[in-house]
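Input set for joint prediction.
Command: fold jointly, output tokens.
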Amino acid sequence: MQGITIHKGTNCNFAATSQTLKKSVQKEAKSTLFFSTPVHIVSANAVVGNKEAQGPLKRYFRRTKEDIKMGEKNFERAEILMFDEAVRASLNEARPLVGDAQLLITGDLLNQMTTSSYVARNLDLPHLGVYSACSTYTEALSIGCVMLDGGYFDTVACATASHFATAERQFRYPLEYGCQRPPYAQWTVTAAGCCVISTKGNGPIIKSATLGKVIDFGQNDLSNMGAAMAPAALSTLSTMFKETRTTPEDYDLILTGDLGKLGSDILRDLMREEGYELGQRYSDCGCLVYSVDQNCYQGGSGAGCSASVINEFVLPRMIAGDYNRVAYLATGALMSTQSCYQGETIPCVSHGIVIERE
Amino acid sequence: MNAVANPIEKRNERYGKYVDSVTPKTGTAKSLWNSFWIGGITCCIAQGVGDIYALIFPNFSEDMIVNITSMTIITIAILFTGLGFYDVIARKGGAGCFLPITGFANAISSASMEFKSEGLILGTSVKMFSVVGPVVVNGIVWSTVAGILNLLILGRF
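tokens >
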């Protein structure tokens, strides 16, 4: 870090176009990728369930589903339907602007990522399935950006989904089973989000991606995901600040994926210890998606949570000019129910991207 | 190895303590009160049902009345589960909904509903006891132990 001026304020070297400066930054950065080709988010769509459509963001969600089963015979089919609709909507929207997508990168929470594969089955595109629990969306976007920046593809679609009923069945108890959740539990969001990124066209630009390390601070409570994931967000966020040489003041919005109320409070505390004051510009998708009176405890979680909030709320507001630079870190807990019953602690990861207005 | 593990353990312990201090706790008094009145009302209703049966069928034995009362309550609990509001009551009632026979009925019926999508044999039949399995196993094991102790210590069958 020595010998290079640390830029502060809006004119930090992020915005600098000088190729040599960028190269020196890239050389020093160990886990941040800077994309020299501008990667535009051309179209972004999400389909959300009924509960989410009644939340604080109801004005922003354009595609909503009344019924949790969505007219299908089981919840897994419903998740596929929702996912398919989101992907097709984004592909169709992008087609007149940048042409057909050439690669599909998707992920979801179910075992063997069945939802993703069943959606990809009908799309006739090369497909990569990625999994890092709730941070799948940023992982997919990072890989997509690398593909575009490397010149292998022009247009890539990235998508994730989660469904409350299918996640509940896989990770917890049957739906109708009368059990009490602790007050620090979270609620899996029923949503699917897809965006098409391209080197052509217009739209917000993904400037850099910070790939996260797997962090485990010894938490083992399956219900307390926020506390388990906050250290992973801390690691990635502070790495992002250091390697892009920015401070929290350089961002209009710092958004984490699904830490929930408790987890985001913990992250604030941890960041303060590191010397960063996040302040008013920091928020969490899990806190945004449900209101207090919806009985969702600490807020939303799941791969669809941050995907829907980013796609339907943040990106349109960026295009409208409300935000210029957004740091977006989705966080994921990488446990399975078996590993937790075997007494293992919860490893977590968080991948971050920086999105800038054109 | 130890030298490396130690600071990490220390960090984890410190973090664990910090998390414990910020994590909201379930209010014990409120939970106790809720489970007391919801569980109490469930039992009162069951008693009422039993009394009504005793009035309608005066020549039934007491055991018979107890049996058909339990069957009625179980049926109601399963009906509530199927209609989707047992879990809403149980979220408030906690142990008051979990401990009576209704809790057992709810656990079996919710699991069998949940896994119906995989078919009657591989879904419902296999997964029916996924939640209550431990209750059944422990019930059998510990009643066997109690029976053996009864035989050995008190010497009666």
